[in-house]
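Renewal narrative, Specific Aim 1. Our central claim is that a sequence can be written position by position from structural information alone. The example that follows is taken directly from our test logs and has not been curated for this report. It begins with the structure tokens describing the chain, in the order in which they were read.
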């Protein structure tokens, strides 16, 4: 990327096909992630001093991270399957980069759990997983297994990514320095994944407006799971119900941008 004429490499100045080829490339992905991967082998600056947690605070954080692992693992499994379903090479490449992102997220969250003293990370994830997230994962992977690209991209790159982006950004604002820096890098990836989902589905729906009905049905089926996961996370953050942020604002805005608000 780049060159003597930097303006020529500003992706938003390109025609649509060239724009998509640029932003869904490995070079674009590498440039996007290099800054927060190269010097953060565990997802955070190794010079950061970790916080001393009270027992209740530690347990709270462990539950949150365990559920983050559930969501990120679901996205890792789905992204890898979507590589095979992609209609063109650009989308294949993007899904390959997303699978790498999701694998990294799972890795840094699991290492954070280990650093908090969790000896059996798999057991903690299994015993603390929110049933709504487990059910969401089942629906998402079923779409992949059935070859339903647009339903899977909607569930993963719009619903799941919007939920995670909202939760992670809120948690980042209140987290200890190490967890906050881990979340900072994850959020940067989630925004890129969400942008792909909205762009891809927006173009598909412009060609086939009747497909909105199928996506709207998926939304109706998954809405309760999304909102249940929001509420469980905010409870795990120690908030009272009257302190919950606007759970669905970002989620509803993403859905409305695709014309699926009815």
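The sequence written for that structure reads:
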């Amino acid at each position: 990327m780049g060159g003597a004429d930097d303006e020529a490499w500003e992706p938003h100045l390109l025609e649509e096909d060239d724009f998509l080829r640029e932003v869904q490339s490995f070079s674009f992905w590498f440039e996007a992630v290099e800054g927060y991967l190269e010097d953060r082998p565990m997802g955070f600056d190794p010079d950061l001093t970790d916080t001393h947690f009270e027992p209740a605070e530690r347990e709270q954080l462990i539950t949150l991270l365990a559920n983050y692992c559930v969501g990120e693992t679901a996205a890792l499994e789905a992204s890898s399957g979507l590589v095979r379903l992609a209609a063109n090479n650009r989308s294949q490449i993007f899904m390959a980069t997303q699978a790498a992102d999701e694998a990294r997220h799972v890795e840094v969250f699991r290492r954070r759990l280990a650093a908090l003293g969790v000896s059996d990370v798999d057991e903690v994830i299994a015993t603390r997983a929110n049933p709504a997230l487990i059910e969401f994962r089942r629906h998402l992977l079923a779409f992949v297994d059935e070859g339903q690209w647009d339903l899977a991209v909607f569930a993963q790159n719009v619903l799941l990514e919007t939920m995670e982006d909202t939760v992670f950004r809120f948690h980042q604002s209140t987290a200890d320095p190490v967890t906050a820096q881990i979340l900072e890098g994850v959020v940067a990836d989630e925004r890129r994944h969400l942008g792909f989902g909205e762009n891809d589905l927006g173009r598909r729906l412009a060609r086939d407006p009747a497909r909105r009905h199928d996506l709207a049905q998926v939304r109706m089926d998954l809405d309760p799971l999304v909102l249940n996961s929001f509420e469980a996370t905010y409870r795990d953050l120690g908030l009272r119900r009257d302190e919950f942020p606007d759970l669905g604002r970002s989620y509803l805005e993403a859905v409305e941008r695709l014309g699926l608000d009815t």
